[in-house]
Amino acid sequence: MNFFAKVGPAALGSRLRRLNDLMTSQAAEVYASYQVPFEPRWFPVFWSVAADSTRHVSDIAEQIGQTHAAVSQVVKDLMKHGLVEVQRGETDQRRSIIALTDKGASLWPALQEQTADVRQATEALLAETRHNLWLAIEEVEYALSRQSLASRVKAMRSERLGSEVRILDYEPRYQPDFKQLNLTWIEQYFRVEEPDLLALDHPDTYILEKGGHILLAAYQNRIVGACALLWMEDDTYELAKMAVAPTAQGLGIGFRLGEAAIAKARMLGARRLYLESNTKLKPAIQLYHKLGFQKTVAGQPSPYERCNIQMELLLS
């Protein structure tokens, strides 16, 4: 069984490169049969210049979907073979205009005839296939413009690894993990304050016995995430002490902890969730917005000097 049959769509890029190599080598045969001294890779740039003699390199790059550097290299090759020349723009002397030379212009009619024949042959080729590759490429390019392959792979990885994450209720044996997870991010960006140490050193006394709750995230037999619900008053709880280990970030653990905390707050009869944070923590703020929190100015003064934003989520 060959490589592509084994790997499947994961090797899409390599399969396309193989197809490109095949098409390019056969295109060279086409040019030779028309006795046109031309390299296939020049065609998009040459065609753009021949169709409009007022184009700059950046214009050509945008039109054919190639980088500025790639187009510049092709232009140099075309100049070397005497097919194009570079002229200064009339309105902007700093921008060079690419135009055909007499030699390039004499080549253009033959290339047009060849292009018409190639188009008909390619359309016949596509008609032999069940799936129209040309239309499929357009669809794939559109889909990738909406979400890159890298982000799609990251989402699949997060989903796969996230399925291995377990949300646990707090137990006293997890106190060192609860403390260290929070000290790590606090010390990285701010300074540890007295209210931090009271809650982290004595979570039973300052969180649980006051009607609060603590959730932990376990991954690969390690505690890698934590968050707490602190009872404030009546039907309001504060979402606090949320932390994810640096080695476990990017797995969606923060979002899963947040969702679990919201569900737990509803079970506890909460109608409002409140939190305090700092705008320096951009990923955290984005997470809170994703969970449905909105900025509020209705909160009481914070006991933490690092707090510069308060947010809330109404549960009913």
TrEMBL record:
Per UniProt, the keywords (alphabetical) are: Transferase
Which InterPro entries does the record associate with it?
Acyl_CoA_acyltransferase (IPR016181), ArsR-like_HTH (IPR011991), GNAT_dom (IPR000182), HTH_MarR-typ (IPR000835), NAT_camello-type (IPR050769), WH-like_DNA-bd_sf (IPR036388), WH_DNA-bd_sf (IPR036390)
List, for all copies, the residue spans of the domain called N-acetyltransferase. Answer: 176-316
Question: Which CDD domains does this chain map to?
Answer: HTH_ARSR, NAT_SF
TM ranges: none
Give the source's domain of life in one word.
Bacteria
Which positions carry the signal peptide feature in this UniProt record?
none
Tell me which PANTHER family the record gives: GNAT FAMILY N-ACETYLTRANSFERASE, LD18367P
Q: Which protein, by its recorded name, is this?
A: Bifunctional helix-turn-helix transcriptional regulator/GNAT family N-acetyltransferase
